Amino acid sequence: AGAAGAAGTAGAVGTADPAVAPAGAPSCSGCGAALQSADSGLPGFVPGGRAGGGSVCQRCWALSHHGRALRLRLPPGEHRRVLSAALRRPPRHGRGPLLLYVLDLLELPDPVLPQLPALLGPAVPAAGVLVVGNKVDLLPADGPGHLGRLRRSVWAACAGAGLRGAALVDIRLVSAKTGYGMEGLVSRLQRSWRCAGDVYLLGATNSGKSTLFNTLLRSDYCKSRAPDIVDRATVSPWPGTTLNLLKFPIINPTCDRIFRRQERLKEEATKTEDELSSEEKKYLNHLKKQGYLVGEVGRTFQRQKPSTVVDFDPDALSYSVDEDPVHSPKKCEKKEEFTQNEIKDARWCFDTPGIVKEDCVLNLLTEKEVKLVLPTVAIIPRTFILKPGMTLFLAALGRVDYLQGEKSAWFSVVASNMLPVHITTLSNADAIYEKHAGGELLKVPMGGEERMKEFPPLVPQDITLKGIGTTEAVADIKLSSAGWVAVTAHAEEELLLRAYTPKGTALVVREPPLLPYISTIRGARIAGTAAYRTKKPPSFVENLKTTGSR
């Protein structure tokens, strides 16, 4: 979170919404929490009584500067209360809000999606739900048409949650981080929704809502001056980062603006990578390392700003992780504000608090462990061939035993590249876990015997599967939010497996699998081991002529 934007006359911009926070109370520009200096364990804490306008709370400062998440005592149900209060407000402009539900594709079937109808209820006059399948860049293409299969999986999850028919406006697959699919999402929103009402970003904690909010903020979806006035939401891997409602004003997509935007998109689509500037190439290569699918988010409507001299203050950047943020006393710059005319009839896009996932392994982990578990770059699948009587560990967070079967089967791990996979015999598995859980071999959790004393034990669930062929997985064994193991077996081969996750977390058998041909993304077998060499498919850049093909 950077320095806060200014408040307009129609309510705080980029801060807490008046409907859910005391009117006039200064709020954090990173998470929207009302600023306070009384209790460091509650949201919005600013040390030393510096809770004035333009501040960020200690939590957002620590997240953005050091990736360090401060534990907060957030009362149960607080996220739901804030969200429900906002959604149940009387419709503005004669129409209920459009709900943009952000779904983490890695979490399918989404554990929060079934809660959506109850959260909304009959009292919410919503105009519909547009589901955004986020983090598509992290998943490798396991064969032709993989995006179509992913989209059908999202459709099935929506139907299973009771979201269908007119209530489901559309499904879009995007990466809020790399920009893939974002221009298409903006065009879809402008064509179908135009400027008829407000838009709310909903979703589970850590689904990427705040990243999507930030990307939309620098796109053609918001008013041209908004990025200069509205601060971005604090983004981190720690679940539940956004504590209150942050918002930006939506631009009115007039016919002229839509025409100008389409002309820009057509012009950009004629470019090749060779025609990009050195800075653009550098940024594009950075994104290619981050994800398999990459896109560019441009801006058609932006005003020319006069060049300014950057006032560099090294003292303001020199604080350690244990020090508090201090604002430079040199001068107080006049902050830019929206005019009354700009916001009097504005429609707003709101980022909302994340809906907490229950039975989630992330709730058991420290911030360091969360950083290792949550994938932030393209996932490289790891495939192993196991015989009956062998065991696969995914860190110390999940375990799959191959108990019975006639032939070897393939087990493909789709999880953060930082999480270790360990293969052993079934007879040694318990001893391996007892000795190495909490240690370097299994890596997560970390902290040795003391950490494991407080960590829940692994509990088993027996699974029976029947293979459908040596190139197509029959099912995914989803080990809560730690990742999943896709199982591929010979046709008609019956397998008896036993999978484990920490007590109190969800283990899901996903049929059909999300990436059915994942086992084919592998190199040669490593001699003397159960492992195959890994292979990373090439990245694809949309709207550029020469980027290679998928």
From TrEMBL:
One of its GO terms (molecular function) is GTP binding. InterPro entries: GTP-bd, Mito_transl_resp_regulator, NOA1/YqeH-like_C, P-loop_NTPase. Residues 411-511 form the NOA1/YqeH-like C-terminal domain. Residues 199-249 form the G domain. It comes from the Eukaryota. It holds the Pfam family MMR_HSR1. Residues 255-282 form a coiled coil. Keywords: Coiled coil. PANTHER family: NITRIC OXIDE-ASSOCIATED PROTEIN 1. This is NOA1 protein. It comes from Xiphorhynchus elegans (elegant woodcreeper).
